[in-house]
Design a protein that fits this description.
With 474 residues, this protein is of the alpha+beta class. It has 18 helices and 14 strands.
Length: 474
């Protein structure tokens, strides 16, 4: 979590730098609006993204793998009943305290945000309403200058009766037409929940200022003289009722707005800014996303192997490799409740690089393995990954066993991974079978079956195919 927060904040900084250095000074206001929203949301997603990097590994996986008994993965979904796993005693952790403080502050900020929305709703209920074609005018007693929230424009009742300049109406109508309030609400919610990121405040202020640029741009398109509109802005009185949720005049922004009205950006420069900004976004995605390093096997000498094995026993896997291992385990683990209310944990190994997991597990010290093993037969144990990458020792059935498999009431037969008839075994000799498994059916697995046991038979060609990338047993 700490790594995610650091990457989130750094990614926000990197994405805001292009805006501050070259985007903010351009008059591409629609592009700026889109980019600011991306810079607000994308840093939340990038640290959760993953991509793989192939890299030569100075060690060989094979020599480091111990000769453990092979664990058969009969399905891609291994199920554990948590009710049978002894639970460790709860230990006090500062993680809970930090989490409590974080969410308490977020709750306070969200409460303040909700209070601001309720204050605006109160202004709407208290004011006199005048319905227009696509928005509502709210006449109030305490609104020196007009401001906008969603589809409502708040105006001082006295100023409305005396007549408001058409340019001011056009400015506020633009806020309504372009739904600027939605941008502000999104920025406020993100700032409240992820308050730990100070860059959200800079992005939020930039969003509000850019809204004024957009509204000003819409006004001066219909103005013969920009100077007239500029003087009109200077003559507007200061705003007493201020809310971070509304679009309204801010005198700190006025200088920048007056400068921006006369600024032009050539198409050639616009294209250059697009390309440069895209490069920064791609670079940020590459830097702050999670990187899975895939090692390619290379041979090592016996002396190096002995030295490294000794080092591994003493030091174990590095913190980075342990973090990678734990991250993968969390991503493939799911929990659900069965009909009896027991918690069932599922491990989906179908999309996992098992060789990579076995490699990391083979580097772990006994202490590191024990910390990641809940019970003696825990299928989450790192040892199971190592075992799954070791070829099972061959075994041939006896004549008595081979003859028993003909009983259709007891055995359902699979030959080389395909369902077969019991009589198909007669096409094989005992010596043709190099490996076999017999498993008794339980629970729902027995439904619709005329047999009580499943028999899996492997011949030499299929054995070589299935375990081609596994390590030979010692």
């Amino acid at each position: 979590m700490i790594a995610y927060i650091i990457n989130y904040i750094l990614c926000s900084i990197v994405l805001y730098i292009p805006y501050h250095l070259w985007i903010a000074q351009s008059n591409m206001h629609n592009f700026k609006r889109a980019y600011l929203l991306i810079a607000l949301v994308l840093p939340l997603c990038i640290p959760t993204m993953e991509y793989n990097i192939k890299q030569d590994d100075p060690t060989s996986v094979a020599p480091l793998l111990p000769n453990l008994a092979y664990v058969q993965y009969t399905t891609t979904q291994n199920i554990i009943d948590n009710s049978r796993i002894p639970h460790q005693k709860d230990v006090f952790s500062w993680t809970y305290v930090i989490g409590f403080v974080y969410f308490s502050i977020a709750l306070i900020l969200l409460t303040r945000f909700a209070a601001g929305v309720l204050e605006i709703q109160y202004q709407i209920r208290k004011g006199r309403k005048i319905e227009r074609q696509h928005y509502t005018v709210i006449l109030t007693k305490s609104t020196p200058t007009p401001y906008t929230f969603l589809q409502q424009i708040f105006v001082n009742e006295t100023d409305y009766n005396e007549g408001i300049h058409p340019a001011v109406w056009r400015h506020e109508e633009t806020h309504v037409d372009q739904w600027h309030t939605l941008d502000i609400l999104l920025a406020e919610v993100v700032s409240c929940i992820f308050w730990i990121n100070p860059m959200n405040n800079f992005i939020k202020r930039s969003i509000r200022l850019n809204h004024e640029y957009l509204a000003d741009s819409a006004v001066i398109q219909n103005q013969d003289h920009i100077e007239e509109y500029c003087y009109l802005l200077l003559d507007l009185p200061a705003q007493k009722f201020e809310s971070s949720l509304t679009s309204q005049l801010n005198y700190k922004q006025l200088k920048n707005r007056l400068i921006m009205m006369t600024k032009k950006t050539s198409k050639k420069k616009q294209f250059g800014l697009f390309v440069l900004t895209a490069c920064v976004m791609i670079g940020a995605s590459a830097i702050f996303a999670q990187k899975n390093v895939l090692m390619a096997n290379t041979a090592i000498s016996a002396t190096a192997h002995i030295m490294e094995t000794d080092t591994i026993k003493r030091l174990g896997a590095s913190s980075a490799l342990l973090a990678e291992y734990d991250s993968v385990m969390r991503s493939i683990t799911t929990t659900r409740k069965d009909n009896n209310g027991k918690t069932i944990t599922g491990i989906n190994v179908q999309s996992v690089d098992r060789k990579r997991m076995a490699y990391i597990a083979s580097l772990m010290s006994e202490k590191q393995v024990k910390e990641r093993t809940l019970s003696p037969h825990d299928i989450n144990s790192p040892k199971h990954w190592v075992a799954s990458m070791t070829k099972p020792k061959k075994r041939t059935p006896t004549s008595q066993e081979f003859n028993k498999w003909q009983d259709t009431k007891v055995y359902g037969v699979w030959i080389d991974g395909k369902k077969a008839k019991n009589t198909d075994l007669k096409k094989l000799e005992e010596e043709d079978v190099v490996l076999y498994y017999v498993s008794k059916l339980h629970g729902k697995a027995k439904v619709g079956r005329s047999y009580t046991h499943q028999l899996d038979v492997l011949t030499q060609p299929y054995y070589d195919k299935v375990f081609a990338d596994h390590n030979d047993p010692k």
